[in-house]
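This section describes the prediction task in plain terms. A model, or a person checking by hand, is given the sequence of a single protein chain and must write out its three-dimensional structure as a string of tokens. No templates, partner chains or ligands are provided. The sample shown here is typical of the held-out split.
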Amino acid sequence: MTIPILICDDSKFAQKQMVRALPENWDVQISYANDGVEGLDVIRKGLGNIVFLDLNMPNMDGYGVLEAIQIEDLPALVIVVSGDIQPQAYTRVTQMGALDFIKKPSNREEIRDILLRYGVVTEQELSPSVELPQEQPKASEEDKTSQDEASEPKSVKKSSRSGADDIIDYRDQYQEIANVAMGRAGDLLARMLGAFVVLPIPNVNILAISELHMALTAVAEDDSISAVCQGYIGAGINGEALLLFHDSSFEDLAQLMRYEGDLDDAGQLEVLMDVANILIGACLKGIADQLDMHFSQGHPVVLGQHTNINELIEASTRQWKSKTLAIEINYAIENHNIKCDLLLLFTEDSLPTINNKLIYIIEGSDA
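The expected answer:
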């Protein structure tokens, strides 16, 4: 019997990865949703008996979907598939009725194991006695367009363009790669602080130097900040990570870290460097692991303490002469006055290498 399933994720790239991770012989009808609002609409129509649900989405996130399913008593078995892997995320979604939790990127064996463990399918259903020709998953007429977009997204097609124009083709992939890396860093920070880290949807843009100045100004607004930068380089890829920490956050952060010294400038610098090492190191490793490469990191450099953003802009961007791929991640700690902004800046010359890595990932999963 054909089972209607829903893949609810704001990334077409992640949707495609999810389709490829499904058991090969599973008889399913696949629908897609780009956010929680669309996802609930699909479930209410009876097209989402089994839901593979992302947590970080616009309009309504995965937590909102789980809450609505409980309130409306909708007939849906939910498996969360997310880059947010911190312990409290797992606890919350299971308490809200999720069947299980899979970290991104998903893999076929893990999904198969969960489906069998909870009795969603049987071995016989996944292993027919007669081997059938490979077919595309079935879809209703109203879902064919979205399925085509997920299985053959325009954003993964090879392009003859290079440099800044490639952001048009690869924004979704950049964002999903950053989403997974962000989650790994958030998990380490959450474990260190014993608190829940509120994760955003990463903001990805190609920026000229003047636009980078504007973006940095918008991040800090009128707040006094301290900042650390750290360069990194890999095979054909190089850039700089910039962590902006709001000075109003130091007191709460030191309390969570059980910092026992005087919270003077030296103490604040120690706290700042600890956070920078975790967020920058984990994010870069998360990106490198997905691209199957390694980054060598330079020594972290303090750009300034208790200063305004304009002074930091001059110190942090004077070496950037062309357009920059900027990935912005805004971290916050739930129920605490703690926020910091991580910017991963890649040179324009790095884009062709990153794009080729993405093509290899996509084409490799087709094999």
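For orientation: The first strand starts at residue 3 and ends at 8.
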